[in-house]
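Recap quiz, item 2
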Amino acid sequence: MLPQLGEVFRTHGYEGASLTLITAATGLGKGSLYHLFPGGKAQMAKEVLAEIDQWFEREVFAPLRDSADAQAGIGQMFKATDVYFRSGRRVCLVGVFALGAARDEFADAVHGYFDRWREALASALERAGHARGEAKELSEDIVAGIQGALVLARAADDPKVFSRTLARLKRRAGGR
Amino acid sequence: MLPQLGEVFRTHGYEGASLTLITAATGLGKGSLYHLFPGGKAQMAKEVLAEIDQWFEREVFAPLRDSADAQAGIGQMFKATDVYFRSGRRVCLVGVFALGAARDEFADAVHGYFDRWREALASALERAGHARGEAKELSEDIVAGIQGALVLARAADDPKVFSRTLARLKRRAGGR
DNA sequence: GTCTATAAAGCGATAGAC
DNA sequence: GTCTATCGCTTTATAGAC
């Protein structure tokens, strides 16, 4: 349910995700949707954002923060990122929200997602041997680089742009 | 006229830019708008994209391709980019379109913008002394980095994220 | 060239039958 | 819990006065 919902928001943005598109994607009528989400579209988006946050917390942020081998945690991040974004065929819903007018309504979720990603990555980079300031800079470069690569890959309609850029970011992070 | 129109599309995306918002931003009634743009919203977006393309062609792409001093051309690109995106307070309209469903309708403009940017930058980097393959990779990193920095800056509601990242990209390009 | 009025369709959301 | 019907509003777009 939430994954299908997420796909609609991802593809059409918050404004563009009409209830007609949502009913088509989920197979549920409006009545059912409002039974499940009394708060309407805003609640749907909030729950989708929360689910995404949980996924990244489990698959990306926690490994970055908690891996005994910091470099392995970073490797897991790149692997999970590649899977999640379907090697560049899928766009980042939080990034889409961040660029649009929806950012203000979902400011906490949008802000938290990127901030915790950057912070967890900086912690791993520091434990992997980078100086504190350098790790902070590099973490910003990498998270920005991933988001930018998604923009470019979709603009060019060529997922390879994402794969290539991700591979170079991994090298800069010290990955093999 | 086109700049005000562009600001609405930038802030609200193609889907979110309603004629009500557009009339408010331009001060023109619907009648006047359809007199100027018989093709409606689609034509407005197309002309805005064309104007943006011209601006970047003149201020960014041409200097990158034609500067006798390649490093000076790259410096001009970073300067113009910082000005255009208001040091991170403004988002990239073409990037917004690229991420959304509007990409398909405006595929040529979206694809051309990023491709020509990357290509012009690669040419300058090569003339500045980078090996051909390295220049191509670096140009992709830099254009993606700029787009990603815009996403992060808007997500954090903090333009400094953009300025910092832009400064590091400039350093990687060999800028002082 | 700009306005107001209006059309037709789509929007988010609700009510109520089943 | 899911559906259909419908509300009230907004959407894009057009017509026609000035």
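Residues 40-66 of chain A form the longest helix (27 residues).
Chain A has a mean pLDDT of 97.
End of item.
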